[in-house]
Amino acid sequence: MPMAEAPQAAGGQSDGGDGEDAEPEGMFKAPEDSKRKVGDYLRLAPLWLALVVLVSVGVLLWYFLGYRAEVTVSQVYSGSLRVLNRHFSQDLARRESSAFRSETAKAQKMLKGLITSTRLGTYYNSSSVYSFGEGPFTCFFWFILQIPEHRRPMLSPEVVRALLVEDLLSTANSSAPPPYRAEYELDPEGLVLLEASVKDLVALNSTLGCYRYSYVGQGQVLRLKGPDQLASSCLWHLQGPQDLMLKLRLEWKLADCRDRLAMYDVAGPLERKLITSVYGCSRQEPVVEVLASGAVMAVVWKKGLHSYQDPFVLSVQPVAFQACEVNLTLEGRLEPQGALRTPHFPSYYSPSTHCSWHLTVPSLEYGLALWFDAYALRRQKYGLPCTQGQWTIQNRRRQAQHQVPCGSTLGAQHGAFSSPASGL
């Protein structure tokens, strides 16, 4: 008897014979899509590589042209500024006094306000007022500007001073003076600014624990207090009347020592302003006299061997400037005539000394010989260019026999220059 077929269940297999071999639709499409995507990635690889190269080039350009261009350097300046509405007192000569601490706090606020009120404020790093002087009241300071390296040549001490003076002049008669002028009446013409270095600041800070300020008046000879033997270094800051120059006298007292003294033509130890330095107790030169070019001088002592006795005595006095220009007419006899001396001989002559001696012989039949007694020339330091002085005769630099035309020091050497009469 025939059987009726049961209807196929929904979602069931349509053909029992094909149930194991049949695959759902799209079973083999995934691998084909993966291959297609890999192919697409391979086609886009050059574009991705180009993007990576462009980004790398951009980073390198930013580093070398942008970031590296903004590398900054510390530029140090040292100087002084006159204040017209303040008076010096002996308390301000002692760094440990409350008067000194109070005045430096106000003066440092004034100095920072002056600098930051100009376009230098962008580069301001730090500043300090480390000393005061009298006749008139003067602040001695240093400050640091953190400037881009490529702008360093454009911010010389002359340029920086001009910017500060410009601000001082523009606010002098202002109805609403800036805060930094609230307590100080500043003298724009009394601003002195010099280039310094981080090394100079380190040298200065090492001496401030044994800091001595002294003002010496006209006609006065002042003996300075000896160094503190418990300190490793001391600084004597010396000042005199503005229209005179200071002369320092050093006398060694011990037969042997390893102490070092350096004399500077400014208020602090600026290497660029070194006048001369002496090392050890000298039997050949037991007394040394050194001249500054003006009314300010600094002396720095570096301890050698430990001793309870001062190895030297220092004294200072103001002296008048001496002219250094001579016109000498020689007579018709073959013997030494006239004596030419540097200012304040036998003292070391001051920095920036320029002497002109004009010598005239009787006729063209005579020549001219220059003899040098107790004079030697040497470099301040080996390897450095000539900065301590030179002789120019008939527009040519000359040197004595066995001597180097650099520097100056007293000695026991002799020398001679000879020249025909023409051109003198």
From TrEMBL:
Q: Where are the transmembrane segments?
A: 44-65
Record-linked PROSITE patterns = CUB, SEA
What residues does the CUB domain cover? 324-424
Q: Which domain of life is it from?
A: Eukaryota
Q: Where is the SEA domain?
A: 73-198
| Record-linked Gene3D superfamilies | SEA domain (3.30.70.960), Spermadhesin, CUB domain (2.60.120.290)
Quick one: signal sequence residues? none
Region (Disordered) location: 1-31
Q: Which UniProt keyword terms apply here?
A: Disulfide bond, Membrane, Transmembrane, Transmembrane helix
Q: What is this protein called?
A: Transmembrane serine protease 6
